[in-house]
Specification:
Seems to be required for maximal rate of protein biosynthesis. Enhances ribosome dissociation into subunits and stabilizes the binding of the initiator Met-tRNA(I) to 40 S ribosomal subunits. One of its GO terms (molecular function) is translation initiation factor activity. It is built from 2 helices and 5 strands; from the N terminus they run E-E-E-H-E-E-H. The chain has 94 residues and is mostly beta strands. The chain has one domain (18-89): Nucleic acid-binding proteins (OB fold (Dihydrolipoamide Acetyltransferase, E2P)), CATH 2.40.50. The protein has a 5-stranded mixed β-barrel.
Amino acid sequence: MSENEGRRDLRMPDDDEVFAEVTNMLGANRVTVRCADGTERTARIPGRMQKRIWIRENDIVLVEPWDWQDEKADITWRYENSEAEQLRDEGHLQ
């Protein structure tokens, strides 16, 4: 068995994205997230994700904070549970 067996190449954050954990569902396609940079933000689920990807509390997501309003963000990606565990094992998440 090799060390990288079962390891998948995961989407990593771009320069303007950060890891976040969904802490609260607000309704109206909005959630509260706790970002890896220590900030709580209100994140918006974009239309292209609303019916295709279900986002629940405690999910790990990538968010892109707004340039003009730092306490808000857009969700750009959601990780599956197995992918989130892999990120934790590799030290990307605390």
